Amino acid sequence: MIDFYNDDSLSIHTDLYQINMTETYWRDNFHNRKAVFEVYFRKLPFGNGYAIFAGLEKVIQFLKEFHFTETDLSYLREQGYEEDFLKYLKNMRFTGTVKAMKEGEMVFPNEPLLRIEAPIAEAQLIETPILNIVNYQTLIATKASRIRQIIGDDVALEFGTRRAQEMEAAIWGTRAAYIGGFDATSNVRAGKLFGIPIAGTHAHSMVQAYQDEYTAFKKYAESHKNCTFLVDTYDVLRSGVPNAIKVAKEMGDKINFQSIRIDSGDLAYLSKQARKMLDAAGYTNTKISASSDLDEYTIMNLKTQGAKIDIWGIGTKLITAYDQPALGAVYKIVAIENENGEMKDTIKISANPEKVTTPGLKRVYRIINKGNNKSEGDYIALDYENPQEEEPLKMFHPVHTYISKFVTNFEARELHHTIFENGKLVYEMPHLEEIRSFARENLELLWDEYKRTLHPEQYPVDLSQACWDNKMQKIEEVKTKVAKMKIN
Ligand SMILES: Nc1ncnc2c1ncn2[C@@H]1O[C@H](COP(=O)(O)OP(=O)(O)OP(=O)(O)O)[C@@H](O)[C@H]1O
Ligand SMILES: O=P(O)(O)OC[C@H]1O[C@H](OP(=O)(O)OP(=O)(O)O)[C@H](O)[C@@H]1O
Ligand SMILES: O=C(O)c1cccnc1
């Protein structure tokens, strides 16, 4: 048997090219040059009008613990890295400064979700894990929030663990879904780790095991106070619902007949009929829950059909972000220290205007109209600017610059918070409940036009004049340099 190393570190959870670039920087004595990187995505997922940022807690855990262990170094030694470089890696810790959006913040394309200022070697090595974390968790929180927009005040249960892309995804995906507005999860470990309420019914296997639906319901009721009976193993209306009612009547006050669950068939028709039967039997407070490949589209459709469903159990299509399995957030360098210790802005040019990076250290502000407490848009400014002092504030589209407006009577709310300061964690992570409430209440800032699930209005994310001018100047500089290049 091949003897593999113990999985005792996440620091090596990075792409090989990051280590190779780090080696180049180190051998060139360039590794301590301060660099600034930003994390952002270019396109909203699922055609939604906003995204919900999640992943910060795990990023913090990762950066706090960042160091190469003996097993990491042994493995790298085996790959041919030399001792002097390994010694450098051994002593490396994260010493940078990180600014980030709060978890649960609504976020939009092209705005920095995180800003990392660190020696280039450190900043480079943490790119892959940060993207790995933020891309997935933000995607799932957004999907969950989108589902919440459709279900209104109904209950949403996260049922996805069995279909998730492995165990970590189930756990952190569940947490992200809770931030996005789900009410509970079936994953007991997620409850233990994060305090997320846990909820669950029973499976078809229990009914099949007893080989008799009535007996199965009765045995369950004899061992549980709170009962939800799964009524679709044989025939929902002829067998499942009548058996559930029969057991509930027999058990009387000994149980809370909380709900029935329907997991197959025509959920609209069956739920309407089941509602009538429960009501007729006097169980008007007993809820109906449904599951079976649900997503926001099916739920919307079921609601238009008048389905009598109060509780939605959602697995696969949430936890795997089935219709768009990747967010596409990137990590781009925007400034680097030169040999004189001065920070110089950097730019990446592309034939595709959306892929041209925006140089310089930036901050993101939400421009909130004080008259109606609605957001006018987000405003990306250079680090030294203070948009609050500009009255009126000109906001213009960063690509179609003729689209502009002047805003008065506004609050420019800065969205970044300092998380690490020179390697020291200075941010106190809010409790998960607080993050979830913040995500819900914060959405009140958005007009409904941005929140609808189909063809929402495009929320403005504008650049300040100085930020835009700086970008244009850098584009000119690069073009001039390229034009003067002589290739021998
Ligand atoms: N009234 C309805 N309108 C729209 N979609 C529905 C309705 N009822 C159920 N669905 C959805 O239809 C899809 C497929 O249901 P289908 O009947 O094929 O499978 P099922 O009943 O779940 O059976 P099984 O689980 O045994 O495959 C599911 O995604 C389900 O959520
Ligand atoms: O459909 P999803 O949104 O992914 O929700 C999770 C599904 O997992 C269970 O089915 P499964 O067939 O795995 O087990 P069961 O025998 O208990 O129905 C449950 O009944 C749901 O249908
Ligand atoms: O508790 C349930 O009903 C449940 C849990 C996981 C997956 N499907 C259903």
UniProtKB/TrEMBL annotation:
It comes from the Bacteria. Residues 158-356 form the Nicotinate/nicotinamide phosphoribosyltransferase domain. Residues 13-135 form the Nicotinate phosphoribosyltransferase N-terminal domain. Keywords: Glycosyltransferase, Ligase, Phosphoprotein, Pyridine nucleotide biosynthesis, Transferase. Residues 362-470 form the Nicotinate phosphoribosyltransferase C-terminal domain. It is an enzyme of class 6 (ligase). Transiently phosphorylated on a His residue during the reaction cycle. Phosphorylation strongly increases the affinity for substrates and increases the rate of nicotinate D-ribonucleotide production. Dephosphorylation regenerates the low-affinity form of the enzyme, leading to product release. It catalyses: 5-phospho-alpha-D-ribose 1-diphosphate + nicotinate + ATP + H2O = nicotinate beta-D-ribonucleotide + ADP + phosphate + diphosphate. The keyword Protein biosynthesis does not apply. Pathway: Cofactor biosynthesis; NAD(+) biosynthesis; nicotinate D-ribonucleotide from nicotinate: step 1/1. One of its GO terms (molecular function) is glycosyltransferase activity. PANTHER family: NICOTINATE PHOSPHORIBOSYLTRANSFERASE. Catalyzes the first step in the biosynthesis of NAD from nicotinic acid, the ATP-dependent synthesis of beta-nicotinate D-ribonucleotide from nicotinate and 5-phospho-D-ribose 1-phosphate. Belongs to the NAPRTase family. This is Nicotinate phosphoribosyltransferase. The lineage of its organism: Bacteria, Bacillati, Bacillota, Bacilli, Bacillales.
